[in-house]
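Catalogue entry: protein
Contents: sequence, fold tokens
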Amino acid sequence: MRKIVLTEKFKRSFRKFVKRDSKLQNRIATALIQMQQDVFTGSLSTHKLTGKLQGLYACSCGYDCRIIFSLEKDLSTEDDVILLLDVGSHEEVY
């Protein structure tokens, strides 16, 4: 199971994003649990990004809800880490 690390930017974006619709919080929480188990599961539609976000990944946690993240390795423990960078609508994160 991968460890999930939240950046400050992700935390700010999350608070702002869920203020608009409290149901989003549950969908994001469900997506994070799925990401820990298998970040490439079909229900998340995980894909690599190109352009200015090249090297990062995005997954879907609902119709217009995206999570931007990177896959890292913890050098001290050699564990896989999911570094959450941003969350929001398609327009907001891309």
